[in-house]
Write a structure and sequence with these properties.
Elements (H helix, E strand, L loop, with lengths): L2 H12 L6 E6 L6 H13 L7 E5 L7 H10 L17 H13 L4 E3 L1 E3 L8 E3 L5 E3 L5 E6 L10 H16 L6 H18 L4 E7 L10 H18 L6 H9 L2 H7 L13 E5 L5 E6 L1
Parallel strand pairs: 1-7, 1-8, 2-7, 8-9
Antiparallel strand pairs: 3-6, 4-5, 9-10
């Protein structure tokens, strides 16, 4: 059974008369989050289910370009905030406004969209005819993203000396400052109000690698494959392999420090982990 079918089955088994059902979908770069979300939405909207589905990404609530520039300028020594991606680069208030409106179900909701191609790849939020209007009511809301469900932690020092030190050496990562990790950790407290909306949490996770290999090595492979595919479709526009590695490097601290646990109190006991092999086929599933 495909990941799409498994996740759809999980959603349908939790669907009640109390709607909408809020579903979070987390997975690393290149794992297929956007692909799965797009096809999951189509699957649930088609007969015999005929559900009304709203879907968007945490990428769509990035700060506008001006906000990203201001954040970087205000924190010139924090490499993690010199571009979009890490917690702290999103407009959490906008996300709360959208989720609240979808839950209320009493008006059309304009779902935002962030165009990553603008400003030389730095990206900007777009409006007008490039957004999607979601009419009420909605049966299922799907919210996907690489850091959806990440939570602040109390043991930064332990991970700094342990997992981070090991991964930094294995992957050849440049140093980040301890205080920069603390800054991102502090910002994650603002995100908890977003996670509390969700009834179900889905996690796409690469199958464990041999102990001699970083568990995050597959993220580089998947993201590189994604970039190559995109360039094959658009005439070669995109990042070279070196740029892709640098791009993924900036995300690795987020995985190391904040990716566990993903379940929010509201979704506790309703989580599904989908383990993927190197080709992104389902290896196994488990509940959390």
């Amino acid at each position: 059974m495909s990941a799409i079918e498994l996740i759809a089955q999980h959603i349908l088994s939790h669907l009640t008369h109390a709607r909408p059902l809020f579903v979070s979908l987390q997975g690393p770069q290149g794992s297929g989050k956007s692909y799965i979300t797009r096809h999951l939405k189509s699957f649930l909207q088609a007969a015999p289910h005929s559900l009304r589905v709203a879907a968007f990404s945490i990428d769509d609530i990035y700060l506008p370009h001006s906000g990203l520039v201001s954040l970087a300028a205000a924190n010139p020594d924090n490499d993690l905030w010199q571009g979009r991606g890490q917690p702290g680069t999103h407009d959490v208030e906008l996300g709360l406004e959208i989720l609240s409106a979808l839950k209320a179900g009493d008006r059309k909701v304009e779902l935002p969209r962030f165009d990553k191609s603008l400003f030389g790849g730095e990206g900007d939020r777009v409006g007008g005819g490039e957004t999607v209007e979601q009419p009420p009511p909605v049966d299922v809301v799907i919210f996907e993203g690489w850091c959806v469900g990440f939570r602040p932690i109390n043991n930064i020092s332990a991970r700094w000396k342990g997992t981070w030190a090991a991964e930094k050496q294995t992957l050849g990562l440049k140093d980040v400052r301890f205080e920069d990790i603390e800054a991102v950790n502090s910002k994650l407290h603002d995100y908890l109000a977003l996670w509390d909306f969700f009834d179900i949490a889905i996690e796409l996770k690469p199958k464990a690698a041999p102990s001699s290999i970083s568990q995050y090595a597959i993220v580089y492979k998947w993201r590189l494959e994604q970039e190559h595919h995109m360039k094959s479709m658009n005439g070669g526009i995109g990042m070279d392999d070196t740029a892709v590695k640098s791009f993924v490097d900036r995300y690795i601290p987020g995985y190391v420090f904040f990716s566990r646990p993903l379940d929010s109190p509201s979704a506790s006991g309703n989580g599904l982990i989908v383990l993927l092999d190197e080709t992104r086929l389902v290896a196994e599933t488990s509940a959390f």
